[in-house]
TrEMBL record:
PROSITE patterns: IQ, MYOSIN_MOTOR. This is Myosin motor domain-containing protein. Residues 409-573 form a coiled coil. It comes from Aegilops tauschii subsp. strangulata (Goatgrass). Keywords: Actin-binding, ATP-binding, Coiled coil, Motor protein, Myosin, Nucleotide-binding, Repeat. Pfam families: IQ, Myosin_head.
Length: 653
């Protein structure tokens, strides 16, 4: 901007090289494809994550010289700023960019009556609220930067750079390298270099002549234009390195301070001259006035002194006469006062002695009466206080006991409600168990019938197999006997050997068949016996389960009966206790604490009250409350038993 102004004013200057951050600004906030625009686009997409956002950045800016992808991370990226390289982590970019204040909420909080809350949430303009459907933190940040740049361009800003002197946060310690690095990163050194190379100070011709015309007033006397006047003024001041444009004067850094210093010197000299003239005039004027007033004061003082001397002489003569008259009057007055006071003192002393005597007699008589009345009053007061205290303690105790009873009744009512609910639950469970037991009984009967039928079938099969086995044994025995007979007859009959061998083969085949039949029958018998044992075991286990279920049902029925009896007993106890509480009236203390106080007259006029007797015993209701009601204790014990029964039932179920 400064160089554009140089060309506009047509002054001699050389181009100043400086580091331009426009490519970084385009990288961050360029509208179609900047980092903030891509971040808003990723926030608007439903399935985008920080990794997809990072991959999109890598693809978009892979050839950008200011954008670097780190080697050891998949979601980070590095931007080469003017101050140095900065690595950004994109894990929470999307969440933080979406974390914005809703426009309706901001309008609601901005309209708050509290100034603090309304200041935290200023109202947005209608254009900004309607401009975009999706408002993110990045877009708002860009809007704020744009408004800041507009205000900076419309004004003439002056910056203050804060430098941290050391990393220890202690006074009087300066780290040179740290301070220099901060100045370089903040752009202060570059700004100083650019300002020294260019013309940082510029003023219009009118402003320059108006401010520095006093340095050479003879230059402004002639009728010359502004440019020639400015040139002659600068030549008169002997300033080097300046430039005069069309409408402004351009000065190097430090030249404006030099001109201001010279102007301050001229103003200081003229101010000293003006002060000297004014002070001399004021001193002369004050001296003349002082001299005139001194003459007048002297004349007035001398006349006043003469008048005072004359008045003093007159007062001295008059005072002598007044003293003589006054002393005579005082002597006469003192004598008359002494005589009158002696008489009054004598009469008052005699009267005082007589009055004292009468007063002492009256006082002794009144003291006797007061003592009697006071002792009587104290005795009555003590009696009334003890009576009130007893009544209040009885009332407090009865109220306390009644409140305790009311709490216990409420707890009992709650517990009875819980017990009733548990009772209903247990009844449902008992019904379910009875239904299950009936089903098990039916199933058991069916199993027993099927088992008996199977047993009968198995027994019939066993009997048939045994009969077959016996028959086969008999046939085997017969065949063996026949074979023995044949073997005995075989050597005698030598003519038919072939017939004997065929019969033997047949017999052997039949024997083998019979053996296989016997073995198969034995296996079947063993299998049937095993099945029979297994069915017996299963039936015994089912019988045991059924017996256990019956015992559980009996226990549950007994527990239900006990619970019903206890609940009914508790209800009757509660009714009785409520009737007892309602029927016990609060008796008055006057019946129990009737303490007559009879004063005894003594010889000297005093009255002595009898000591109050001990109060009678409290009414029976209080005793019962103090000792504790056995019914309440029983009801609490029964409640504990009921809770134990509930636990047992739950364990059984």
């Amino acid at each position: 901007m400064e160089q554009e102004e140089y060309t506009k004013e047509e002054i001699d200057w050389s181009y100043i090289e400086f580091v331009d951050n426009q490519d970084i600004l385009d990288l961050i906030d360029k509208k179609p494809g900047g980092i903030i625009a891509l971040l808003d686009e990723a926030c608007m997409l439903p399935r985008s994550t920080h990794e997809t956002f990072a991959q999109k950045l890598y693809q978009t800016f892979k050839n950008h010289k200011r954008f670097v992808k780190p080697k050891l991370s998949r979601s980070d990226f590095t931007i080469c700023h003017y101050a140095g390289d900065v690595t950004y982590q994109t894990e929470l970019f999307l969440d933080k960019n979406k974390d914005y204040v809703i426009a309706e909420h901001q309008a609601l909080l901005g309209a708050s009556g509290c100034s603090f809350v309304s200041g935290l949430f200023p109202l947005l303009s209608d254009d900004s609220s309607k401009s975009s459907k999706f408002s993110s933190i990045g877009s708002r940040f860009k809007q704020q930067l744009q408004s800041l740049l507009e205000t900076l361009s419309s004004t003439e800003p002056h910056y203050i750079r804060c430098v941290k002197p050391n990393s220890l946060l202690k006074p009087a310690i300066f780290e040179n390298q740290n301070v220099l690095q901060q100045l370089r990163c903040g752009g202060v050194m570059e700004a100083i270099r650019i300002s020294c190379a260019g013309y940082p100070t510029r003023r219009t011709f009118l402003e320059f002549i108006d401010r520095f015309g006093i340095l050479a007033p003879d230059v402004l006397t002639g009728s010359s234009d502004e440019i020639t006047a400015v040139r002659r003024l600068l030549e008169k001041v002997d300033l080097q390195g300046y430039q005069v444009g069309k409408t402004k004067v351009f000065l190097r850094s430090g030249q404006m301070a030099e001109l201001d210093a010279r102007r301050n010197e001229v103003l200081g000299r003229s101010a000293n001259l003006i002060q000297r003239k004014v002070r001399s005039f004021l001193a002369k004027k004050s001296f003349i006035a002082l001299r005139r007033s001194a003459v007048q004061i002297q004349t007035v003082c001398r006349g006043e002194l003469a008048r005072r001397v004359y008045q003093g002489l007159r007062r001295e003569a008059a005072s002598l006469k007044i003293q003589t008259r006054y002393r005579m009057h005082n002597a006469r007055k003192a004598y008359t006062e002494l005589s009158a006071s002696a008489l009054t003192i004598q009469s008052s002393l005699r009267g005082m002695a007589a009055r004292k005597e009468i007063h002492f007699r009256r006082q002794t008589r009144a003291a006797i009466i007061i003592q009697t009345r006071c002792r009587q009053f104290l005795a009555r007061l003590d009696y009334s206080r003890t009576r009130k205290a007893a009544i209040t303690t009885q009332c407090f105790w009865r109220g306390k006991v009644a409140r305790k009873e009311l709490r216990k009744l409420k707890l009992a009512a709650r517990e009875t409600g819980a017990l009733q609910a548990a009772k209903n639950k247990l009844e449902k469970q008992v019904e379910e168990l009875t239904w299950r037991l009936q089903l098990e009984k039916r199933m058991r009967a069916d199993l027993e019938e099927s088992k008996s039928q199977e047993n009968a079938k198995l027994q019939a099969a066993l009997q048939e197999v045994q009969q077959q086995y016996k028959e086969t044994k008999d046939t085997l025995v017969k065949e063996r006997e026949a074979a023995k007979k044949v073997a005995e007859i075989a050597p005698v009959i030598k003519e038919v050997p072939v017939i004997d061998t065929e019969l033997m083969n047949k017999l052997r085949d039949e024997n083998d068949k019979l053996k296989t039949l016997v073995s198969s029958l034995e296996k079947k018998i063993d299998d049937t016996e095993k099945k029979y044992d297994e069915t017996n075991k299963i039936s015994e286990e089912r019988l045991k389960k059924a017996m256990d279920a019956e015992s559980k049902i009996d226990d549950l029925n007994m527990a239900m009966l006990r619970l019903q009896e206890k609940i009914s007993n508790m209800e009757t106890d509660e009714k009785v206790q409520r009737q007892a509480l309602l029927s016990t009236p609060v008796r008055s203390m006057s019946e129990h604490l009737s303490i007559p106080i009879v004063p005894k007259n003594l010889e000297n006029g005093y009255h002595e009250a009898e000591e109050p007797k001990e109060p009678q015993s409290a009414p029976p209701a209080l005793k019962d409350y103090g000792n504790g009601d056995p019914k309440l204790k029983k009801s609490s014990a029964e409640k504990q038993q009921v809770s134990q029964h509930f636990l047992v039932l739950q364990l059984l179920l």
